Amino acid sequence: MFRAIACTVTIAAGPALAQTPCGGPFGGFVEALSAEAVERGQKPDTVDAFFDGIRQDQSVLDADRRQGIFQAPFIDFSRRLISSDRLERGRSLGRDYATTFEAIEAEYGVPRGILLAFWAFETDYGSFQGDYNTANALVTLAHDCRRPELFRPQVFAALELFAQDAFDPDTTTGAWAGEIGMVQMLPEDILTNGIDADGDGRVSLKTSPRDALFSGAAMLADLGWRAGEPWLEEVEMPTEFDWYETGLETRKPASDWAALGVTARDGEIDAPDLPASILLPQGKDGPAFLAYPNFPVLFEWNQSFTYVLTAAYFATRLEGAQIYDAGNPEPGLNGAQMVRLQEALQARGYDVGGADGILGSGTRAAVRDVQRELGLPADAWPTSELLERL
Question: Does the keyword Signal apply (predicted)?
Fold first, then answer.
């Protein structure tokens, strides 16, 4: 059995501890963050050494604003990410690290397909792990007022790793959003779930596949992954159906969906007794999936619906599933049209998380409501007809 290396975590703040506000001059923000770190219990010398070389990184902010790939619909996105080479390499690595994956599944219940999918998508099986300075990236994003609540805790987590001699603010690099290693974990997740699986005394997520895979599995288990249960299954839908019942918001036992005419594409529903949702990433005429309770856990790794669905589907392919039936979905909206749609939905009072041109869960839920209101098939797939009606 492998366990996380013991850590003395000092990142939690007491209720009366003031938080450094985002924005303002960057230098002043770093000074205030340093003072807060000392208040949290870190030694002044450690804090000074950590923040001494911190610089604002404009390229990180540029990358944060530039995420157009997530505007692609599921079919296009999945075909872009899943190549025959990536599939074969994943299967080959599954064989090469069979002993590791067997130990992981026995310990945490996380199957190899899931870990291989994130290993593939996050860093192309470790070949490109990002070259952004991690400390600079985290402090830059904590200072930026778009999502400071996400990144401030990661700064203090990185500082704690530095205090434990497990992070170098000058040389540690990773993704623009501060993730580190082969499966891209944030500092808080490393503190909580970092595993020294190869027994060398360090959690080496950048150089040790065994450490990275065990740590990723420990994180998923900590987030609620349920051992021995499926996560996604392709299904075929009946012609007549209440499409408003689809989406992550509605769960029914898979056997109830079967009673309504939903059938597994491979012949039998995987887990008829488990609650499941029906996902139609491109509407009623495109691919269809049953999403089981393990599926939402994956959103803790990435918030993009299209990314998570693609990773979950790729994991099933790595474990033997067939290529999905793409169907013949209606053309969707381009980025500019999606922004107009989101603005129209916001004008109607829907919270879609901003007009960013990305068809996320909030926009899908709003689209489904408006489709039903307008007498259209409520399958959460926005089309030009819907945009014109609005």
Answer: yes
